[in-house]
Write a structure and sequence with these properties.
The complex is a heterodimer. Chain A is mainly alpha-helical. Helix content of chain A is 77%, strand content 0%. Chain A has eleven helices and no strands. Classes of the chains: A mainly alpha, B mainly alpha.
């Protein structure tokens, strides 16, 4: 936390190396947030870049009294992602859930017992596809809490809603995610679903 | 407790955020209701799946791309500039010729007898280098030649000693042994033979001295020749 503030101070004095250090610390986190929202690596890269350009331009507006720098960063990123979601809503309408499910069905089932690495990668893909099916409100709450490990207060600060609402969204998001995962595993077939704990 | 209440409390229950009383009520319901048990199990699985999810690695160039888009092209520091300047020198294809050049120059400087601390104007003349190198070469040759001749002299002396010793032994064996007078010792050397041996010894010494003198003359003449050829 103090390290962030120190870097921030140096950034504000025009020290480019401090900005570079800040980027190295947070690029991965923001990229992952973008990836969890979009489900696409190329789009996540572009969004990460846009988020950091915005951060760079509004660095002076950060108020340490309103929360940590990390929370502020997440809030800016989340707002940008919401804007992006609204902007690209029309484009996404063309690809339906049925198309995605068809893609899942087409995936060849491995004949042999998959290795740990393949299994982990498949679980990741499954989780990402399930997240893509959640509504943005629920998805962002679950991603921030369960994937980015933010506590309820931080999630509330990022989303700008009361903690009670955050709790409710996270709970509903998890329930929805569990239902989607079950449905997807039903489509994939019992052979693959057998890997569940 | 209803199914809906369990649905609402499922996350708090799994995260351990319920007070003991509520927790006991939820657990009591779960032991009786298989559907709610299944629901809580599904949410637990979702939590496990999310927490075991690994972070996705961004492309390695992403930070550079963002830097370029924000602060523009960064000016390299002095250290980075120096490192970039000397980086090619570390490459084997550059380092090897440089090392060989330094080695060749050190040989030339040594051969030309140049002392870098006291350089004079004439030291910079390649002609001087040539003459000095030539002189050093001839001196070295003369020393080697002298060494060779010295070795030859020593071997020659040794072989002549060996030869003469062999000759004297043969003569001793061939000489008839005089009949020992009654009561006289047969081991004693006759007076004539002692004289012969001393004569032979002086002849050996003379031969050795002559050989030594001729070798020394040869070596001296070699050195003299070297000295003549060194003079520029």
């Amino acid at each position: 936390m103090n390290q962030d503030l120190e870097l921030l101070k140096r950034c504000l004095t025009g020290e480019n190396s401090a900005w570079e250090d800040l980027l190295r610390v947070y690029t991965r986190k923001i990229y992952n947030l973008c990836y969890r929202f979009t489900g696409r690596t190329d789009e996540a890269e572009d969004l990460t870049q846009e988020v950091f350009i915005k951060i760079y331009q509004t660095l002076r507006s950060y108020d340490a009294g309103q929360g940590s720098f990390s929370t502020w960063l997440h809030r800016v990123a989340r707002n940008h992602l919401v804007d992006h979601y609204r902007r690209t809503k029309k484009d996404r309408m063309t690809s339906s859930i049925e198309d995605d499910l068809a893609t899942l069905e087409e995936k060849p089932s491995p004949g042999v017992e998959p290795t740990g690495h393949v299994e982990a990668r498949e679980r990741q893909e499954l989780l990402q596809q399930a997240l893509d099916r959640l509504s943005p409100d629920l998805r962002e709450a679950v991603v921030l809490r369960d994937l980015h490990d933010l506590d309820y207060l931080e999630v509330a600060q990022v989303l700008g809603v009361p903690q009670g609402t955050v709790k409710s969204r996270i709970n509903r998001g998890r329930l929805e995610l569990a239902r989607v995962l079950k449905r997807m595993e039903g489509v994939r077939g019992p052979a693959e679903a057998g890997s569940e704990p | 407790m209803t199914h809906l209440e369990i649905e609402n409390l499922a996350s708090d229950y799994l995260e351990g955020l319920l007070d003991p009383a509520s927790r006991a009520t939820v657990e009591a319901h779960l032991t009786e209701c298989a559907a709610c048990r299944g629901l809580v199990g599904d949410i637990r699985r979702v939590l496990e799946l999310c927490r075991s999810a690994e972070e996705v690695d961004p492309a390695p160039w992403l930070v550079s791309k963002i830097l370029l888009a924000t602060v523009g092209e960064r000016k390299p520091t002095l250290l980075e500039q120096l490192t970039a300047l000397f980086r090619p020198l570390v490459q084997p294809r550059v380092a090897y010729p440089i090392a060989m050049t330094v080695f060749a120059f050190s040989i030339i400087i040594n051969a030309a007898g140049l002392t870098l601390r006291n350089l004079r104007f004439e030291d910079l003349n390649p002609r001087t280098w040539y003459y000095r190198a030539d002189r050093a070469g001839h001196l070295m040759y003369a020393r080697a030649e002298k060494f060779y001749y010295d070795l030859r002299v020593v071997y020659e002396i040794e072989s002549r000693f060996r030869q003469l010793r062999g000759q004297s032994q043969d003569q001793e064996e061939q000489a008839p042994k005089p009949a020992a007078p009654g009561g006289g010792s047969t081991q004693g050397t006759p007076p004539g033979q002692t004289q012969l041996a001393s004569t032979e010894g002086s002849r050996v010494e003379a031969t050795v001295q002559a050989g030594w003198a001729s070798s020394a003359v040869g070596a001296q003449s070699g050195l003299a020749r070297a000295g003549r050829s060194q003079t520029p």
